[in-house]
């Protein structure tokens, strides 16, 4: 397989253009998970429906979560191009309709439509990288997706606040239209339709049952006690529907040939524990991001833009410990301690947030958010790594996507649960603090609240603060349950492939890959340009050859082309003529190659050195996947062959 450096300039430009478009669609989908947070008080202020505030976030997350695995299968069957363009169209239609919404019911419905498109944007964009980027560069490119996902969580609330203050909340949806249209056109013009080689059976019934069951749970938690009494027939019907749908889902998944979530995975204790902890992490993250802007804008009186800035400490804390924990895991070879410490810190952060009051300074609130972010960062990065380290090769792809799916489900249900607690408590607090004849605004618009008479305003702010406190108190209890669960995480020795994990897993971006593609992505880090020099140094040491990395590389490439002229090697590799001449000259001086009529070939010593290099290179790669029993999985042979060629394709350069 060619590397990016070898491709013609026109082809390189095409790859860069495609990747730029993929980053645009990925950024749009990930931004829309958090960009509405700071706009929610204003949206509810205009459209009403305070008790349904959580559904603006929940509908999007739930639709994206359930649709993601289906898009992965659609891409395998029909090709990435048409599937990605379809997802973009659905996302843009949903965005336009969200901006045109005239009431809360319309906005929630259109957010679900937008989420259906977003699920395809995230999953398919990552899969396209595997189709168009060579293995040597794949880890770096997918790492950019991880960084993009992290950055979007930071700038989302800030951008949402900016649009509310300077334009309108509707622009948080309208801004998607021109950007998405550009991405659609670029992908249509540059991405080629790929012939499909794999046939899959799509688990439509399982997806429908999962969507129905989760939606019933979310409706139960968000509508119970507010819109409908807890003992009403509608609430009872939702409970029954949730139980029936989720039970049927388990039954279907145990019988379909390609389930969305193989039940046998839950026999693996690491997968079961990390899924539960991931659920709690999603609940904590999205719950905090959704309800903190209410406190900042109504209680502290800051603008939407400033409330977005006030959320930045939470995201920066998450970013710092995500990256740091990843580096420490690679250095120490241990990961179990991080989710244990992380969930404990998250619990402390939630306790601190539950104590926020009217007199709390913004600096104290910011420090509390930093604590929460530091804890989340120590958990999010580790969960996918732990799963990949513990499951058999045949489950590697689906376990990776399944692990991130539980985090998204946690976000969906958590936001809804917090919304029910908040709405019920606010209703009770207002009834206790204000006379029955006081006319209150029907919304939580910050402007409308500020316009209340001073005494009524003070009572309202106290009531809202009291209503938010149990939200974070419940989150603290749930987070502590996550801490207890993390204690049961097995301490499985890390496979050597964990050395391949990079920024791509820092934020555990959702994916739907088969096991072969996932192994290739993880291992591709050793073929990165910045790692190649060290890899060749180790290769020479293990082969007991006293040659520099560039000389070992020249020896390996000559062995593939022998006998060959320097011009032939240059044409095949695109390497600089002067560097190649120096390397070949040194090999000739050492008696490993000889020149005849301008073409180089091996001497007997050179042939032995070459055979040693080839043997050690293959053995090194096989050692990296030994824990996945390559002798039992023929697909791994192809992965190793591709990676071996990629490792040998470009002359190493000192870091």
What does this 3D model show about the protein?
The chain has a two-stranded antiparallel ribbon. A hairpin with a 2-residue loop joins strand 1 (593-596) and strand 2. Helix 1 (9-31) crosses helix 6, helix 11 (269-299) packs parallel to helix 15 (396-433) and helix 14 (362-390) runs antiparallel to helix 15 (396-433). It is elongated, with a radius of gyration of 27 Å. The chain has helices spanning 9-31, 40-47, 53-78, 80-100, 104-132, 135-166, 171-174, 176-190, 204-223, 233-253, 269-299, 304-332, 337-354, 362-390, 396-433, 446-450, 454-486, 515-523, 529-542, 549-561, 566-573, 577-589, 604-624, 635-647; strands spanning 593-596, 599-602. The model is unreliable at 1-8 and 498-508 (pLDDT under 50). The protein contains 24 helices and 2 strands. It is mainly α and 655 residues long.
Short structural description:
Helices cover 72% and strands 1% of the residues.
Rg, rounded, reads 27 Å
Which structural category do the helix and sheet elements fall into? mainly alpha
Tally the helices: what do you get? 24
Largest beta-sheet characterization: 2 strands, antiparallel
Question: pLDDT average, as an integer?
Answer: 76
Beta percentage is: under 5%
Order of helices and strands: HHHHHHHHHHHHHHHHHHHHHHEEHH
Shape: elongated
**How do the strands of the widest beta sheet line up side by side?**
1-2
Number of strands: 2
Q: Which percent range fits the helix content?
A: over 70%
N- to C-terminal distance: 24 Å
Low-confidence stretches: 1-8, 498-508
